[in-house]
Amino acid sequence: FLDSLSYDEMFVRHGQISDAFHETFKWLFEPPQEQTSWDNFTAWLRNNDGQRTYWISAKPGSGKSTLMKYIASHIETDTELRAWAAGSPLVRASFYFWVGGSDVYKSRESLLKALLYQIFINRPELIARYCPRRAEVHRLFGSFPISWDLDELDNVAQNVVKDKNTKFFFLIDGLDECVNDHEELVASLQALTSHQNVKICVSSRPWPDFEDAYQKGPHLLLHERTEGDITSFVRSKLDRSRGYTELKMRDSDFADRLVEEITQKSQGVFLWVEFVVRAILSDLKNRKRIEVLERRLQELPEELEELFQALIDMVEEDLKEDAYELFELVRAAHSPLTLLTLSFAHEEGKSPEDGKSSSIARFERAKLNPQEKEGRCKIMKGRLMSHCKGLLEVTTPVEALAACTVHYMHRTVREFLKKPDIWKAFSNVIAKSSFDPYAALCRASIIHLKTFDIEIMKTNIFWAAVTDSLHYA
C-alpha cells in the first residue's frame, strides 16, 4: 500500500538544501525582543490557542529553505511539539516544493502523496480506517488497479486529520514553487488546519495569494531578521583566508568595515552574500590592494539579477562558448542532468565534422569502468566551477560522483538565465558553432545507453535512459 504513495525522489530535496551555517538561526527558538516584527515561533509550536499556521516569508535568496530544513531537524521543534501534543501520538511530515527539480517536486499531488506516506508509515493502523477499499484490495491482491488522483488524495488527507487522537505537524517549504493554482493550494491547507489537532509551518515568497492568506496570523519576514547571521557568516568565511588575516594586521579598521558593508548591502539576502564573499576571497587570495577591494565592493550590484549579469560578464572570452553551451544544456534538459550525462552531451554532443566518425559510433557497447566515469565527472565538475561562476552547482555526492546531478545554484538563477534577452545573448555566441542542445542531449542519452551492462538493462534505469533518448530526438 505504501509503495503506491511513494516515489523515488520523495526525500532527495531535503538532503540537497544547504545546512544552516554554524550559529545562524539560533534566534528562532529564543523569545523575540520587545517591539519585534515577528511572532514567537516557540510559543506557536507549544500553544493551543487556535493559531494553527505559521508563515515564513522573505525576499528571494534569503535562506527560506535552509531555515525550514533547520526547523525540521532541530530538537527544540520536537520538544515544543510534544508539549503541544500532551501525550497524544505526534505525526510529523514535511515536503519541499522545488520548481528547479523534476515534476515530483512541483505539484499538489506530490505534496499530498508525501504527507500521506509519512502519516501512514508512522501510524499504519490508520490505513484501514481511512483507505478501507485500497487497503483490502492490496491485502488480497498485492496491488490496486487504479492510480491515485488529486481528488482522492485530497479527500484522504482531509479525512485522516480528523483522527482526534493524533496530533499532526506539517512543514511545507516553497508554496510559490507549486505549479498548481496557488489559491487552491492555500484553500487545501486551510481546510487541514480547520482541525485543532493540526499545525502547519509554511514558507513562500511574499506573493499576494500568500500575504492575503497568512499575513494576519503568526509570521516571520526572514530578510528583516538575518543581519546578525549574515555578519557571522561573512566574518567566519573571511577569517579562514590568509589574505584577510594579513589585511587585519595591516588595516584592522578597513577589515572590519569590509564585513559591515557586505552585511548592510546584502539587505538580508544570503545568496547575494555568498557570491560577493566568493569574489572578495578571490581578491584577497591574489593580495589585491585595499583600493581594489573597496572598488570591488562599490561596483558589485546590490540587486541579484544585476549581480548575476556581472558574473556572466566576468566569464573569460575564450571560455564563453563552452560556458553558454553548458547553460543551454541545463536549460534544455527536462529533468536534472547527472554529471556523466552532461559530460557526454558537452564533449560528444556536437555533430561530427565531414569525414569524421560519429561520437556515438566511437563508443562500443561496453561498460565504462569506475575510473573512466570518475575522470569524466571530475573534469566536468571543474569545468562548471571555472566556466559558470557558481551559477550552476553539483549536488552533494550520493554514492558516486557520476550519480550527482547538476542544477541551478538557486531558483533566482534559473529565472534569470531563462530570460529571453539572456538567451538571445547566449545564442549569438553559440550560433557560430551550430550547437543544438537537444541533439547533444539525444546523443548523450544514446551513448549512456551503450555503456550500460546487462544487469542495468533489466532495471528502470535503462528504460529511463531510453525515454530520455526519445524525448530529445
TrEMBL record:
Pfam families given for it?
A: DUF7791 (PF25053), NPHP3_N (PF24883)
Q: Where is the NACHT domain?
A: 52-206
| Keyword Chloroplast recorded | no
Q: Tell me the Gene3D superfamilies matching this sequence.
A: P-loop containing nucleotide triphosphate hydrolases
Annotated SUPFAM superfamilies: P-loop containing nucleoside triphosphate hydrolases
Q: Which UniProt keywords apply?
A: Repeat
Question: Which InterPro entries does this entry report, sorted A to Z?
Answer: DUF7791, NACHT_NTPase, NPHP3-like_N, P-loop_NTPase
What top-level branch of life does the organism fall under?
Eukaryota
Is Isomerase a UniProt keyword of this protein?
no
The UniProt entry, under PANTHER family, shows: AMELOGENIN, NACHT DOMAIN-CONTAINING PROTEIN
Name-wise, this protein is NACHT domain-containing protein
Q: Which organism is it from?
A: Clohesyomyces aquaticus
